[in-house]
Each structure stands twice: as C-alpha cells, then as structure tokens.
Amino acid sequence: MARPFLRPFQPLEWAAAFLFFWLLREWLLPLNALTDTGDLGEFLVLIAGVLLLDLLVQWRWFTAIIKLLGIFTLLYYNYFVTPFWELAWLKAVAARLSHDLPFLFQMHWTEMSLISRNLLFYILLAALVSLLAFLVLGHKQGLWFVFLEEAYLATLDTFMPYDADGSIMRTLVLGFMLIAVLHLQSMGKLAASSKSKSFRFWGALLAPLLIIAITVGLAYAGPKKAPSWPDPVAYFTKQQADNTVYMSKVGYDNNDEQLGGPFIQDNTPVFTAISNERTYWRGDSKDMYTGKGWQKAVSDREAILKPNEYTWTDQLFENMETKEVHATLDFHGEAKYSTIFYPGQLTKLDHYTPQHATILYDRISQSLDIRNGTEMYRIRSRELREQQRQQQVEKPSAVRLKLNNYRLTAEVPILSEKNMLEAGTDYPASIKQHYLQLPATLPPRVKQLAQQITQKAKTPYEKVQAVSTYLRNSGKYRYETKDVPIPEEGQDFVDQFLFESYRGYCDHFSTSMAVMLRTIGIPARWVKGFAPGTSVQTEGDGTEIIEVQNRDAHSWVEVYFPNYGWIPFEATATFSSPIRINHDLQNEQQQQNLPVPQLNDQDRDSVSNGRLEELEAMTDTAASGQSHSWPFIAIPLVAAIAGVILLWIKRRHLLVWWLRRQLSEYQEEQFTQKYQVLLKMLERIFYTRHEGETLREYVNRLSVSGEKRQDLWYLTQMYERVQYGTKQMEGKARAIANKILEQLSQQLKP
Amino acid sequence: MAMVKVDHSREVIENLIDNIEKVLIGKRHVIEMSIVALLARGHILLEDVPGVGKTMLVRSLARSIGGEFKRIQFTPDLLPTDVTGVSIFNQRSLEFEFRPGPIFAHVILADEINRTSPKTQSALLEAMEEHSVTIDGTTYPLNQPFFVMATQNPLEYEGTFPLPEAQLDRFLLQLQLGYPTPEQELTMLTRLSGQHPIESLEPIVSVEELIQLQQTAALIQVSEGIKEYVIRLCQRTRQHSNVYLGVSPRGTFALYRAAQALALVRGRDYVIPDDVKELTPFIFKHRIILKPEARLDGMTTERLVEGLLADTRVPMN
User: Fold this and answer.
1) In its UniProt record, which GO terms are filed under biological process (chain A) (predicted)?
2) If you measure CA to CA, which chain A residue comes closest to B315?
3) Contact, B149 vs B108, CB < 8 A?
C-alpha cells in the first residue's frame, strides 16, 4: 500500500526533532576543538536538512535522492567556482574520487584529497543522522542515545584536551527534554480516549521541564565534593611507570593554556640529531599570558608549498653575528611532531620525508607547522572572487603531517653584550602592542618584585640579566618536578610560583621571567622546544650525534631588542644559556667562543626538564601522591552496570508499580478510568489485548485463577454495564467495585 | 423496571431452551440461536445432512410455544398455491372461498427448499418478508409469531434450484446442527427407546407471551460504540478485496436485531461486543459471496469472517 508523500504534521514530532538536532550539534562541537575542522556550519546544515527531510517526506527513496543532491550542492559550494549547471565540477569530483578510492581501501586516508574525504564524510554523516533519527525519533527511544552521548562527552573530557562541562550539562537538559517529548508522544497515542486531554498534555510537558530545571539547577548550584578517585588517564599512565606516585608524563605538546602540576620523567626518545652544534631546538613561541598559561593571540601564516626551495632570512636575530649550523634530525618511535624543531634561526630545510609535505609558516611566532601536501581552496573573499573569478588557490592541506626526518641549515647567534647594552628601548609599535600584554588579574606584587630586582639595572639587557639571575641564582627558587602544586581557581600561575610555592620547573621559571619583564616594559615572549639533549658520539670533524628524549622538552624566554630582534634567554635554574655570549664588554679582545652548556650525565635527572601533557585532569589528591587501586573504579562501575541490569529485569515491576500509583489518583466515580488502568496493568503483567478482542475474551485468556479471576469477571461485567449499558453505578455497588479493584491491583504482580 | 422484565424474560427463555433440550440433545447453542431468530422476528436457514434432527428442532420449538406447526416438503412439482393456499369456487354459496395453505401456521418447517422451482420458492420467501399473502387481490395476514425454518441439503446438487442471493438475505441466521458426539448419541438412544419425548412436551409460553418477548428484545439498549462496531464490521465486508458481494444494509439491521435478541437470551438489557462477535459468523455466512479467485486460493467465508473479527477494533464504550 502506497504511503502518502508528505508526513502528517505533528508538533511533538517536530519538537523532538528540534531537540535532537541540538543534541547532534553537541556531538560535532568537539571536532572544532580537537581537530582542524574549521567551520561546523556546513555539517549543521547537513544535519538539519536530513532531519527536516525525514520529518516532511515519507518516501524514503525520495529523501535519499534529495539528500545526495544536497550533499553534492554543499560540496560544490565549498570547492568550486565554475557555474553549477555546467557540471564541469561534477567531472572534477568524479576524477578525484576515482583517484582517491584506492587509497581508501589501502587505508592511506591522509593521502586522499579533501574533496573525497569531505564527500565521504557528508554521506556518512547523512546516513548516520538518518539512522539515528529512525532509531531515536521513529522508535521513540531516546535514553540510550542520551546515555551514549554523555559517555562520549565524558570520555573526550577525560582523555582529550577538551572541556566538555558545558556540553555535558546541555546534553543532559536537552536529552531529558527529548526523552520527555518522546514519551509524551507515545503516551498521547495510548491516552487517545482520555477526555481531559489538553490539560494532561501541558501538565505532562511542564512537569519534566520543571524537574529538569530543578535537578540541573541544584546540581549546578550545590556544593560538589572533589572527585573521590583519580583521573583515569593519569591512573593508566602510572601503570607504565615504576613510580607509585602517578603523574603525567613529560613531553612536548601544543596546548599550554594551563601550566603547573607535577610530572614524571619520560625517557622515550624523540629524535636523533647529527649536528655541528649542540643548542636548543626551538619549536614555537607564544605571546599571550592568560594568568594560567600561554596562548597564541596573533599569527601571520605563510604557505610554503615547496619547503626545500624556500630560504628563510633573519626571522629572529637581525644584524647579529651568527654561526651556521647543519643538522639532520631523524625521528624514531611514536613521538613525532608536526612541528619543525630547529636551532637558532632556520635558513634552509631539505631532504625531508615524506616528500609531499608542505609548511604553514607563522611569521610572528616563527613556528613551522607541517601539513600533508596541498589542497585546492576556493577563495571566499568577495573582492578576490571578483578579480579572479575562475581561480582556486593551492594551499597547504588542513591535515597535519609528521616528518620522519629532515636536514636543516640554521644560524645560532653570538650575542654581543656591548650591542645589547646599546640597543635602547625604541620598540616598534606592533611589538609593544603584543608583547607587553598582561592579564588584568595579575597581582601587583609581581611588578613590585620585578622593579625591586631591576632597580640598579639601567638598560633593558641589564634588567633581563637581573631577572634571570634572580630566578636562577638567588637560591629562592627550587627546581622541582614532583611536588609541584597546581594553581587554584583564580590564582595566578606566576604569582603562585614567585610568592607561594617557590618551586617548579622550566614552565614556572620561563613564564615568570617573561611576565616580570613585561611588567617593567620589556617585550618578551615564551618559547618552547627541546633542550640540547645528550651527546652520544662525537665525530672527528666536530659533528656530534645527539639524542633528544621526551624529558628534554623545555621552555625559555625570548626578549626583543630593537635592531637585533628576538634574543633567547634561559630562566630556569640548573639550565645554561641557550646561546653563545660574546662578553665583549669586559674584554673586547677576548673573542672566545663559549662552549655550549655541558650537561654532564650525573645531574641529568635534575637538569632535564619538560612540560606537562595533561594538566586540567590533575587533582590535588593526585598531586599529593596518594595512590589508588582498581577497586575504586571497578566497584562503582560494576554497581552501575548491575543497577542498569536490575532495572531492566525489574522494568515490568516498575511499570506496574507506576500504574498502581496512577490508580490512586482517580476519584471514586471514575470507575471506568480505573478499570482501564487495571487493564493496562494486566497487559504489562500478562499479554496485550488484541485490537479485535473483547474484554471477556481477554479476561478468559488470562492465566488468573481462583478469587482473582472471579473479581476480574465481576469488574469486567461492571465495566460493561457502565460503558455499553450506559448505566449509572449505584453508590453501594461502586464502593464494592472500587474495593475489589483496589484489592486486585495490590494482588497482581508480574 | 427494565431489569425486572429482563429477569422474567430470561427465566422464560431458559425454560424454553431446557424444554427443547429434552428432545434435541447437546444442541444448546443451536437452540439458543433459533430462539434468537424467533425473538428477532427472523427466520433460519439450516444447511445440513438429513437425519440430524432438523425436524425435531422445529417441532419441539413449535410445541414449546404452543403454536401451530406445519411442514412443507418442497418437491419440484410443488406449486405456489400449495404453499400459500387457494381460492375455490363454492358452488353452494356461489362464491370464491379461500382455503389457507400450510403457511398459515406459527412455526413452519420448509424442508429441502432448494428442490422446488424458483416460482414456489419466491412465494414462500415473499410471505416471509411481508408477513402476509395476497391471493386474487385479497391480502391475508399471516399468524403472529411467524417463524420459518428452512432446510437445504448440501449434498444433493442434482435437480436443485439454488436460492438466489436476494432470497438468502431474508434468512436472519444460517445454522448447522452437526452430528452429535458418541455420548450424546448414547443418551439419545436411551431416551428414544420408550415413548418419543416430543409427545409429552408441554408448551412453556403462550403465543401472546412470545409476542411480548419479541417486543422486549427490540427495546434492548445498544450503545453508540456498539452500533458503530456493527456498521464497521458490515462496511468492511463490502470493502474487502476478496469479497464479490458484501453484507447488505438489511444484513446490518439483522446483526443489530439479532444482537439485541441474544442480549435478552443472555439476560442483559444491553448489548456487549461479545454478542455481536458471537452472531457475526451466522449472519454473515450466507450473505457474503467471495470472488472466484479468492475461493480458488482456498479462502472461505468462515475464515474471512474470523479474520474480520480479529482485526476490527472492539469498542470500549
């Protein structure tokens, strides 16, 4: 039998779909934070479109065609400029697909073009949304979906640098609303005969809203106990280390939004370098201090499509004497980064694999982000489009790539103290704008301390040296990796280190130095990368084989000097300066090349440094080193699963209990309604009544015996008298019937 | 007030059934259905093999209501006047005088109705519908109550004139007696060994009382939901894809009246869906004609009606 083309309009169904859409949005939001996905708009449009189609049209094959058309239109809008109707773009898509499909089956997904990947993702998303809509909205079963979504968000929150607190709350509210609406829909079908329909309807809608509002409100406002068992990520990490104190591992990573907390040493090798100079490996720099950590506020990215043909000039140190460094880096093991690490300043990069790598170079932070080849982009800007209508731009891919090895040529500066002292304070406006930034919440005593330290110093260089010396050599601050507290809510990271804890590692020292310099008007920024590493072997021509491990991850400070650019400085006790200094001030004749900091193996443990990987996850209990065992996780988990299973097994009991409660809500006179509830109870306990089955036939079929059967017969005959015979029940008869009904409802059990 | 009347009626009907059961053993349901037809002022078509007690049923019924009983054996040479009666010229009074036929009785057994010519068949069936007979321009009303039990023999097809659909529609119920069980047959043998019990059967109700019962049956309460249920059932036979001819509006009314009568037989002054469901097979069976292709597929009217009843929503009010 043919179904009508359009689905009849049902407000509740639309309401459910609306809520469902927002739930699906919560699903996609993490993509924004965790991957390179820029704009979620198109995906949301896709989801909304699919839901809308499924709501409006019943013919499935028809919606499938429209969905596919929509997907292709979306693809066209994103990648093509030729007129839509010429269909040349379709050929291009087909060509891309046929080129990329083999990669799909070879599982070389990153080799696939953006168009193919997008197309496949669109189709997958549309199919998934249709399926979910069918399962959740069609079958009116929302609980499992909300539960899974919460689990998904909780997992992301725990194992990924994603803050899902808001999402979890929103999902909870939206999810409960969805369940309420779905339930109302199915109830509406059951209670089609109910007379006071509209009253029930609004009541049924308002009640869950109120309950959700109260519950969430209470949960939000109420005092919360600290987590009673440790963060699982840190817990699992512990399993690998011998140390009973579980902590995060040290390593290089891109997120510095929150600093502090303890970590453990990790000897995983990162790369082996063959170089004629042992010096710091610079990775990235950040300009904005938030009070908790560092972020990038500005960036100016340049696309380098063929890095081996590109030459960098004077990005860091201008007009300075430099030494040329040749180095080959070979990354082995799992730890590879999509960042180029280089000594001093980079001039040339070649001999790298994979060879299709492209680079996004940030001219402001001087960081090099490695990307997976190129992609064609359609120019979105209006002016550009008018000028070059037909043009698409080739840009580095949005997908990050990790290089296995590369050779580079770089320059390390030889600092002339004399020049530095004469550099003056004539900072360019853009430098002053970005690199003197401080959060408003920074306590004034930081500035007071900086002024106090530098009161004798006249020039910026002297001030920088004074601050560095104060942090490194005053003896007040201890290098410590394990017993390091995390700043409390609202507490400034630098302030805590300088005035309260007096202990920390490179992040504490370098951040404090940069911030203190900024308070006294010296532009400074925070740099991270790797410390020089350990020399494994020295060749005759002065080249060394150097091994760099995760524990060598390090951070330091760069200070801006007019005419000379960004000069690196070391802030951490037990580390030596990252650059060669020509002490030409004291002795102009003495042109000695200071040896690169020799880090002997003895104090490697205390010297090596690193950064925290997972910070927000750490708790105070964790920091104090309390150890936890499996049962803390297992018992509640098992209890929860057992609870769910029990509820499932006892679901009929629960339903009957609920119906029994409903019975008591009716008045004496409402015998027929009460009988209908009794009927529902019987259907839950025994079997459902067929549509064409009369009450007598149904009661006969039930396996009830003895008195209960007689009572049931009596009640059924009463009901027939009232309903079919349209007779009023006399007071006495009603009282008896009600009493019997009550008794029976108590006796009936699944 | 109504309750008292129903209680009394029920008592009378129970006695009537018990009385007939003395003769016809183990056929309570058929007896009940016959009384339903009697109370609903309808007629019954019995389709069964010979010798299962068709005549006994009718005779005992006639005796129990104290009415006159006549039997018409339909043969191919039976004339309409043999049924209705004939006007004869009285030479003494020089006037035409009407000699009433066997139809002028209270209970009539029309045996093997499909063996006579359509002309004679229609004479009986018209009388059944109109409750009167017109001969030579004069209309003679039939007795009240007037109850016809017609039988047709399903095995003998040779030399028969099958009743047309329009005629079948005039029977309220189509029943089957069926063979008795071995135990029932044993009881029968014991009972029949002496004097035949039908000879000692006493009338239970008078003709007047029966007419009153018929009037009570017509007053039985039928709720709107049940009326809709009756209509829905009949409508669905007309829309069914396997049906060539569905139940006529006369059939709808028949189901309605029969349900009222059955409610009275069961001692209720209101109809419940069970009454309708119980009667539907007997009322629909001879009123539905299946499409030939459906019949070839093995569909029967019984199965069709069963399916209809199973998936037609039972009213809850």
Assistant:
1) proteolysis
2) A694
3) yes
Question: Phi/psi of residue A624, each to 5°?
Answer: -80, -5
Choose among A417, A444, A495, A30: nearest CA to A259: A495
Is B247 found in the same domain as B173?
Answer: no
Three-state SS for A275? strand
- Structural contact between residues A538 and A289, judged by C-beta atoms closer than 8 angstroms: no
| Phi-psi region at A560: left, alpha or beta (left = phi > 0; alpha = psi -120 to 50) | beta
Q: Domain check: are B16 and B154 in the same one?
A: yes
Three-state SS annotation for A172-186: HHHHHHHHHHHHHHH
Residue A304 phi/psi, 5-degree rounding, is -115, 105
List the single best residue of A678, A689, A690, A694 to mutate versus B (max B Cβ within 10 A): A694
Q: Which domain holds residue B228?
A: 220-311
pLDDT tens for residues B259-277? Answer: 999 999 999 989 999 999 9
Chain B, nearest residue to A697 by Cα = B274
- Give me the percent of chain B exceeding a pLDDT of 90: 36
Residue B317 counted as domain residue = no
Across the interface, do B272 and A727 touch by the CB < 8 Å criterion? no
Question: Are B208 and B243 part of one and the same domain?
Answer: no
Residue B33: predicted pLDDT: 93
Query: Residue B110's closest CA among B71, B136, B156?
Result: B71
Q: What pLDDT shows up at residue A600?
A: 39
Q: Is B136 exposed, middle or buried (0-12, 13-18, 19+ CB in 10 A)?
A: exposed
User: Which residue of A697, A723, A727 is in closest CB contact with B317?
Assistant: A723
- Residue B199 counted as domain residue: no
What digits encode the pLDDT tens for the residues B184-218? 888 888 887 777 778 788 888 888 888 999 999 99
**CA A551, CA A267: separation in Å to the nearest integer?**
6
pLDDT at A630: 56
- What is the distance in angstroms between the CA of the first residue and the CA of the last residue of chain B? 23
Q: Judge whether B197 lies within some domain.
A: no
Mean pLDDT of chain A: 78
CATH of residue B243's domain is 1.10.8.80
Residue A614 confidence (pLDDT): 34
At residue B39, the pLDDT reads 92
In a domain, B316, yes or no: no
Quick check: A417 and A582 in contact, CB under 8 A?
A: yes
> What's the CATH number where B139 sits?
3.40.50.300
Whole-angstrom distance, CA of residue A366 vs CA of residue A639? 53
* Chain A environment of B309 (Cβ under 8 Å): 692
Q: Are residues B249 and B182 in the same domain?
A: no
**Residue A665 CA neighbour count, 13 Å, CB half:** 8
Pair B169, B237 in one domain: no
**CB atoms < 10 A from the CB of A92, how many?**
16
First to last CA, chain A: 39
| Number of domains comprising chain B | 2
Other C-beta atoms closer than 10 Å to the C-beta of A483 total: 14
**What's the pLDDT at A243?**
38
B184 and B100 part of one domain? yes
- Specify the pLDDT at position A539: 78
Q: Which residues of chain A have pLDDT under 50?
A: 1, 193, 195, 238-248, 385, 587-628
Distance of CA B152 to the CA centre of its chain: 13
Taking an 8 Å cut-off on Cβ atoms, the answer to whether A691 and B225 are in contact is no
pTM reported for the whole predicted model: 0.46
Comparing CB atoms, the residue among B270, B309, B313 nearest residue A724 is B270
pLDDT at A627: 42
Partners of residue B226 in chain A, C-beta under 8 Å: 724
Chosen for mutation from A193, A722, A724, A726 (greatest number of chain B CBs closer than 10 Å) is A724
Residue A196's identity, in one-letter code, is: S
Shared domain check, B103 and B28 = yes
Residue B40 and residue B116 in one domain: yes
